[in-house]
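Supplementary notes for students who missed Thursday's class. We covered one full example, reproduced here. Read the sequence, then the structure, then the short commentary at the end.
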Amino acid sequence: MTAIALTIAGSDSSGGAGIQADLKTFAALGVYGASVVTALTAQSTRGVTGIHDVPANFITAQIDAVFSDLAVNAVKIGMLSRLEAIEAVVEGLARHQATMIVVDPVMVATSGDRLLAAAAVDALRTTLMPRATVITPNLPEAAALLDRPLARDEPEMEAQARALLALGAQAVLLKGGHGTSADSVDLLVDANGVTRFSAKRIATKNTHGTGCTLSSAIAAGLAKGLALRDSVREAKDYVTAAIGGADALRIGHGHGPLHHFHAFWTNG
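Structure (token representation):
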């Protein structure tokens, strides 16, 4: 049977993040990708210049169309910019009894542009995160969700991940990509303990879409039937290689995208 993953997220007109990054990742990892668009962004490698929200009833229509026809094995959820969008997604997941849900709490773009309305943060915490198989915040997102200072080291990362776990998700992957150490360390925390994933930090400005890509790679692994830890490990390896290949691309004038198809083609 063909593994199918669904991304529920915003569109990135520059192609490096959001729905576009998710579908590229699914394809690169051998998974068929479907999509529900929650917002359109006018976006480039330099930043976000506009956001057009998709009406909640049309988000609902997309969800119902996909689940009524496709056997969805895993769901990745990204940008939900408004309360109404979160409500539509939560109701849709419940209605179709969706499982294997990866929630990337997208709050701020790589460029620094805010992508989630302040009024929607509480709904993200209380209604969506408890439905998640795993949530994948980076350090700034974890700090914002908990109203705490940025974690400075691994013990503080673990403490924040455990605090997020208490909000109801089955697992938390706290990403250390915003850290400053020689290694980029992510911590997976669940009821069974802590698993550490580490990779050498790669010096490049071309990291646009990293968070979207990691969360969709995890969803791809889950869609293929991998256990969560194996899905995270495969995703970490894939993203590290995609960052490593990013400088082979020459896309835009700001933070360029990862090379999602580094294993298949090069562009010197």
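Commentary. The first helix runs from residue 18 to 28. The two ends are 37 Å apart (CA to CA). If anything here is unclear, bring it to office hours.
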